[in-house]
């Protein structure tokens, strides 16, 4: 019989190294007021494109995007980009119900959009998967670069709120692509990669996703705003 | 303008596009491997040594294994190649005498002044050390029944090795099985490229699994492309034939039982374990214990000692011993080079003749071979000649040839060194002088094999088997001479022909198989499992003759391996690109549809469009004005505008009454253009090929009174969303909205009497609360007047028609006609519905009820529809003609009367009207209804005129007429009792009692006797 040597412990190069390439699949939902740039963020992230004029989303766009975190780790996002209009609010649970992560977007030039974002975050924290990773994204950073007076929400305020609520926080620009990839990468890094295997995109359940408790801390803002 | 001609091009339906999964991604990445692999070179140094549990062996390790010292070039016949250090002066090397003396003083036996012959240090990428007998296994009682588990020896050897090899080298694997130890270290540059390390022990010794014999093996993957297997084994020891069998058995056990963990390839774990043979390169080394057979051991000892004594300056002490021994035997010996195709290995082949005059001083006689001999094997007096003469007697080569072990592609470098066993410990060249005088043998070996070697063997083996089978078949068919068969070009008999292959020069690596003829000096190319082309070259294969601390001499091999290694940074980049491409293909190849709303339907309505609060909604389905009882439909066209087959369906979404596809009042169905509408109605899921379309009908029909009430009072709006989900695609929201047309249905009496003369629709723009602020305009709902008036008129007309026209017969079978639905002559539900909707519309818009029908409608059909509408409307009145409060009063009176109930119709009517008078509007409405029902009953079944002049006896048939009238009274009481009274919900007996009481009251009002 093949017997493991009693003293033949594996070296550091054993299966814990090298043998741990991972491919994890996660459902991500975008929420936020109408016209804050949810679809634009997705378009930038997935296709690296930007349209100045986009029709509002009637429905929920479904896209996938695979990113490599490092040599060993690949994360595939299944992105549900939802309609932001108030009249479709009641349908949002269809999309965040089994989501592993959510990006709640507001427009840094529209004060009301952060209020709306906060409502979404509250709803997510109450109704969604209890381990959902939520990122707050203040979009349209490009608008305030030249005209700082256009800004309606200071970075500090939003950041403080995000820290309090345990959210990832980025100020982004889908137009210039600033912080877009960083936003999704930060989410991917916070996801519990070890437990999540590939699963049917539309299967119910949590896909065996469990978060490590220590992962609830806030990650610092990745923005480079001068405020 | 250019015109484009479409030439009936068939849209190509593509296969579902690739989707990024772990497998597809990995496949895509591997397909581009040339972009992320870069050629790498590595030197692998393998050391093998049976240390015979001797103390001090660990101290010698650094010298020979790491630094390549203690080679005796004259006895090792080093084949100089890249692995041999050049320019290393051996001038100051310690003499054998000093070295052997040092040994006795318990000092290092590593040569002083030896700078090392073999490449070492940081030129080596991977150090592989296989040791045998690191613990004393001679006393079996120590480990019988228990697996040896002392970590001391391992620790000692690890320490010795880590101190010997350059700093920074990291442990890849440490594996011990009793006396067997396999240690693998890699340089800091190589270490990170090694993955999928798996180590396995296979014991074949006592009790089959204990570790005094067996193998420890390690598998690893280098640069993510090249898998290497290192097997350190100690096979059964002993010289007789039985033990040889046992060694072969040991090998088969090791092969059979060595199972490594599955390999992780680009993130995907192979689903099977691998064994020896699945790798790209294998190295098998250790004390394999194969002996020289067929020669008297003593002869070999003496022959070889001639060399150890003669060819260089053996220390005086040893020389004396050797000389003494040699002189003891005066039979001169020489072992001629024996051809390897010599079938017999018996003692006959050992021809002895006087080759050397042993009385001369051999040391001075024999020339230094380095001086002139270019090919040592050509010099009969050379060491190589002696070695070559012995090798044909090597058991390993026999078992390879006989396909008993190591035959399937295993190769060995040329043996240019003395047998490694068995020496007197502490001496450089003195073979076993104990009683046993064991024959010197090449017990210790380093074999290797490439994937190609194994495949080549298997190919030849298959061909041989097939040839043999053909031969046997022919013999079975009675064709003894293969030449008779035209198909056979070459007659082949493996038994006779197998050995005809000329043996190759012993200079070349021995393959143990005869088919491999084109062996040359070129580096051996080998294709790895994943298709990478790797090259291996054996740089060196030699023994360290001047290591004195064990009775075995250590062996070293250096291999140069050219392989393609993955560059992680490049691979990451390629992987990101591949993932992006897959995502792109996946997203662009996703099924998709386009929904086109048919807005023309809305345009038709603009003329009558009422001011709608929904004008803000640009998108979605505008149902326009939606009325009670009137179906309203809109159609959508759904087209597959994607490149792939698309399946879609309306899915449940969170709604007012839980998860449902849409509100209950909305009917959604697909209608395929080319099929019968009924055939594809209400499809759960529709599948369209690219370019195909389907129609979808969304139909609102509001006939539920509860819903009507909610719409009337504004607690509900005709505004909702359908979700059309494309499988594996996006969700489309299909919002829809309509304007509720105010109706007289589902109202209270109090509301109804405030409706202005222009009808309830004139209040359309007002919010619902306004109706209660309207002044009271009527004593009873005007709708009641209108309906009852028309019913009476129509009933009279119907009876008149019946007497005039045979075609129009009032149904007599059912007493409930025209209020009883079962009795209706107009059974076409669609026509009825249409007529009823028209009547409702007339009521709501304060139109003329009679003209709501098409002109030609027979009165009898009109009557039925209006009668139906009346019943429906009465039932929809929220508080009812007789409210729950009024009913409670009536019931209280009934209960209080106990057994003395009123029986006279007039008395009952008086009592009821007295109770109802507290609510005058309800009272008037009730009286109005009951009198209408009376009249209708009278029209349909006129009673004999009792007040006329027939005093003696009623005219003929009057009895029947009275009976029919009675039946109608009862039937009407039954029908209207259900819609007139509002009572709290009761069940069972209580309900039956309440129904009985309602009929009792209504019958009194309808009773003909009351109108004497």
UniProtKB/TrEMBL annotation, chain A:
Q: Which GO terms describe its cellular component?
A: endosome; plasma membrane
The record's annotation in SUPFAM superfamilies points to: P-loop containing nucleoside triphosphate hydrolases
- A Pfam family of this chain: Ras
Enumerate composition-biased segments (Polar residues). Answer: 214-227
Coiled-coil ranges from the UniProt annotation: none
What GO molecular function annotations does the UniProt record carry, in alphabetical order? Answer: GTP binding; GTPase activity
Name where it's found: Cell membrane
Q: Where is this region: Disordered?
A: 194-227
The entry's protein name is GTP-binding protein ypt5
Automatic annotation (TrEMBL), chain B:
Pfam families noted in UniProt: Exo_endo_phos2, OCRL-like_ASH
Record's InterPro entries?
Endo/exonu/phosph_ase_sf (IPR036691), Ig-like_fold (IPR013783), IP5 (IPR046985), IPPc (IPR000300), OCRL-1_2_ASH (IPR048869)
- UniProt lists compositionally biased (Basic and acidic residues) regions at 501-516
Which superkingdom does the taxonomy of this entry point to? Eukaryota
Q: Where is the composition biased (Acidic residues)?
A: 482-500
Task: Return one GO MF term.
Answer: phosphatidylinositol-4,5-bisphosphate 5-phosphatase activity
Write out the biased-composition intervals (Polar residues): 1-10, 348-366
A Gene Ontology biological process in which this protein takes part is: phosphatidylinositol dephosphorylation
Occurrences of domain Inositol polyphosphate-related phosphatase (ranges)? 40-471
Task: Enumerate the residue ranges of region (Disordered).
Answer: 1-25, 333-382, 472-526
Keywords of the record: Endonuclease, Hydrolase, Nuclease
**Matches recorded under PANTHER family:** INOSITOL 5-PHOSPHATASE, TYPE II INOSITOL 1,4,5-TRISPHOSPHATE 5-PHOSPHATASE
- What's the protein name? Endonuclease/exonuclease/phosphatase
Species per Swiss-Prot/TrEMBL record: Calycina marina
């Amino acid at each position: 019989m093949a017997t493991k040597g009693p003293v033949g412990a594996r070296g550091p190069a054993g299966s814990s190294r090298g043998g741990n390439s991972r491919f994890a699949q996660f459902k991500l939902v975008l929420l936020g007021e109408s016209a804050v740039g949810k679809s634009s963020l997705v378009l930038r992230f997935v296709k690296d494109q930007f349209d100045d004029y986009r029709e509002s989303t009637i429905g929920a766009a479904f896209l996938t995007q695979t990113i490599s975190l490092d040599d060993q780790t690949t994360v595939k996002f299944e992105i549900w980009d939802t309609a932001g209009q108030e009249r479709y609010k009641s349908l949002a649970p269809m999309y965040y119900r089994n989501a592993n992560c959510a990006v709640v977007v507001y427009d840094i030039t529209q004060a009301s959009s952060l209020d709306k974002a906060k409502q979404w975050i509250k709803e997510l924290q109450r109704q969604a998967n209890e381990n959902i990773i939520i990122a707050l994204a203040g979009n349209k950073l490009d608008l305030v670069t030249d005209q700082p007076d256009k800004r309606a929400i200071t970075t500090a305020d939003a950041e403080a709120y995000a820290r309090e609520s345990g959210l990832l926080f980025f100020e982004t620009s889908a137009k210039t692509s600033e912080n877009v990839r960083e936003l999704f990468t930060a989410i991917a890094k916070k996801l519990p990669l070890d437990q999540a295997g590939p699963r049917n995109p539309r299967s119910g359940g949590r896909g065996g996703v469990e978060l490590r408790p220590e992962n609830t801390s806030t990650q610092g803002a990745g923005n480079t705003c001068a405020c | 303008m250019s015109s484009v001609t479409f030439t009936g091009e068939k849209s190509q339906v593509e296969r579902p596009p690739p989707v990024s999964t772990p497998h597809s991604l990995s496949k895509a990445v591997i397909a581009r491997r040339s972009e992320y692999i870069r050629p790498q070179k590595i030197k692998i140094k393998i050391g093998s040594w049976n240390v015979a549990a001797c103390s001090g062996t660990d101290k010698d390790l650094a010298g020979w294994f790491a630094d390549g010292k203690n080679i005796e070039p004259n006895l090792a016949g080093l084949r100089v190649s890249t692995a041999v250090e050049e320019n290393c002066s051996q001038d100051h090397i310690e003499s054998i005498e000093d070295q052997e003396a040092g040994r006795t003083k318990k000092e290092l036996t590593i040569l002083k002044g030896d700078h090392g012959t073999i490449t070492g240090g940081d030129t080596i990428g991977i150090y592989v050390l296989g040791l045998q007998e690191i613990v004393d296994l001679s006393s079996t009682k120590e480990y019988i029944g228990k697996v040896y588990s002392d970590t001391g020896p391992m620790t000692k050897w690890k320490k010795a090795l880590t101190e010997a090899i350059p700093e920074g080298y990291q442990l890849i694997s440490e594996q011990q099985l009793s006396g067997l130890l396999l240690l693998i270290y890699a340089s800091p540059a190589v270490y990170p490229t090694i993955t999928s390390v798996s180590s396995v022990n296979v014991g074949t010794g006592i009790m089959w699994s204990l570790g005094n014999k067996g193998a420890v093996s390690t598998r690893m993957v280098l640069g993510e492309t090249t898998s290497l297997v290192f097997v350190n084994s100690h096979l059964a020891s002993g010289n007789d034939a039985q033990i040889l069998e046992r060694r072969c058995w040991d090998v088969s056990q090791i092969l059979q039982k060595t199972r490594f963990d599955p390999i992780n390839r680009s993130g995907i774990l192979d689903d099977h374990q691998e064994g020896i043979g699945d790798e790209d390169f294998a190295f098998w080394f250790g004390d394999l214990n194969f002996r020289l057979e067929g020669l008297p051991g003593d002869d070999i000892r003496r022959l070889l000692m001639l060399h150890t004594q003669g060819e260089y300056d053996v220390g005086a002490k040893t020389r004396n011993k050797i000389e003494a021994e040699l002189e003891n035997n005066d039979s001169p010996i020489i072992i001629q080079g024996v051809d390897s195709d010599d079938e017999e290995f018996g003692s006959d082949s050992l021809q002895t003749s006087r080759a050397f005059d042993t009385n001369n001083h051999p040391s001075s006689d024999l020339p230094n071979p380095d001086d002139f001999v270019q090919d040592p094997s050509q010099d009969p007096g050379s060491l190589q000649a002696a070695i070559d003469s012995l090798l044909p007697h090597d058991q390993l080569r026999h078992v390879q040839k006989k396909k008993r072990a190591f035959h399937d592609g295993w190769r060995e470098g040329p043996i240019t060194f003395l047998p490694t066993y068995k020496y007197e410990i502490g001496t450089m060249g003195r073979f076993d002088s104990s009683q046993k005088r064991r024959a010197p043998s090449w017990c210790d070996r380093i074999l290797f094999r490439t994937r190609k070697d194994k495949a080549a063997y298997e190919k030849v083996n298959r061909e041989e088997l097939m040839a043999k089978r053909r031969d046997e078949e022919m013999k079975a068919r009675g064709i003894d001479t293969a030449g008779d068969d035209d198909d056979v070009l070459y007659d082949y008999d493996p038994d006779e022909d197998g050995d005809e292959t000329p043996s190759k020069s012993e200079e070349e690596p021995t393959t143990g198989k005869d088919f491999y003829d084109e062996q040359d000096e070129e580096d051996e190319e080998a294709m790895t499992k994943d298709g990478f082309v790797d090259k291996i070259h054996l740089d060196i294969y030699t023994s360290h003759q001047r290591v004195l601390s064990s009775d075995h001499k250590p062996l070293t091999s250096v291999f140069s391996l050219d392989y393609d290694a993955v560059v992680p940074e490049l691979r990451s980049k390629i992987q990101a690109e591949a993932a992006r491409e897959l995502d792109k293909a996946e997203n662009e190849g996703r099924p998709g549809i386009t929904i086109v709303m048919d807005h023309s339907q809305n345009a038709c309505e603009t003329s009558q469009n009422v001011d709608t609060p929904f004008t803000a909604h640009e998108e979605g389905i505008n149902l326009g004005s939606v009325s009670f009882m009137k179906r309203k439909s809109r159609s959508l066209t759904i087209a597959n505008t994607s490149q792939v087959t698309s399946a879609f369906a309306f899915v449940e979404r969170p709604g007012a009454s839980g998860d449902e596809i849409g509100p209950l009042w909305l009917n959604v169905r697909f209608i395929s253009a080319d099929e019968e509408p009924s055939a594809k109605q209400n499809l759960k899921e529709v599948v369209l090929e690219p370019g195909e379309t389907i129609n979808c009908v969304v139909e609102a029909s509001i006939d539920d009174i509860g819903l009507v009430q909610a719409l009337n009072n504004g607690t509900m709006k005709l505004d909702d969303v359908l979700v059309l989900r494309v499988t594996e695609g996006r969700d489309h929201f299909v919002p829809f909205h309509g304007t509720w047309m105010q109706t007289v249905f589902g109202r209270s009496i109090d509301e109804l009497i405030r409706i202005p003369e222009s009808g309830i629709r004139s209040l359309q723009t007002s919010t619902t609360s306004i109706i209660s602020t309207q002044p009271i305009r009527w004593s009873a709902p005007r709708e009641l007047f209108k309906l009852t008036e028309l019913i009476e008129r129509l009933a009279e007309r119907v009876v008149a028609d019946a007497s005039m026209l045979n075609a129009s017969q009032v149904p007599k079978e059912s007493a409930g006609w025209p209020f009883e639905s079962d009795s209706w002559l107009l059974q076409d539900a669609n026509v009825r519905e249409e007529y009823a909707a028209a009547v409702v519309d007339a009521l709501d818009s304060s139109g003329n009820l009679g003209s709501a029908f098409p002109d030609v409608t027979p009165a009898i059909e009109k009557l039925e529809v209006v009668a139906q509408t009346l019943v429906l409307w009465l039932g929809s009145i929220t508080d009812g003609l007789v409210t729950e409060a009024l009913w409670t009063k009536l019931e209280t009176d009934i209960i209080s009367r106990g057994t003395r109930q009123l029986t006279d119709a007039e008395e009952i009517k008086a009592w009821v009207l007295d109770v109802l008078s507290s609510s005058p509007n309800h009272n008037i409405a009730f009286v109005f209804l009951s009198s209408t029902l009376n009249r209708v009953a009278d029209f349909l079944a006129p009673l004999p005129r009792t007040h006329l002049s027939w005093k003696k006896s009623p005219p003929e048939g009057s009895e029947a007429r009275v009976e029919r009238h009675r039946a109608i009274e009862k039937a009407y009481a039954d029908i209207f009792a259900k819609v007139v009274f509002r009572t709290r919900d009761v069940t069972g007996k209580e309900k039956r009692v309440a129904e009985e009481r309602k009929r009792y009251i209504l019958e009194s009002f309808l009773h003909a006797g009351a109108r004497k």
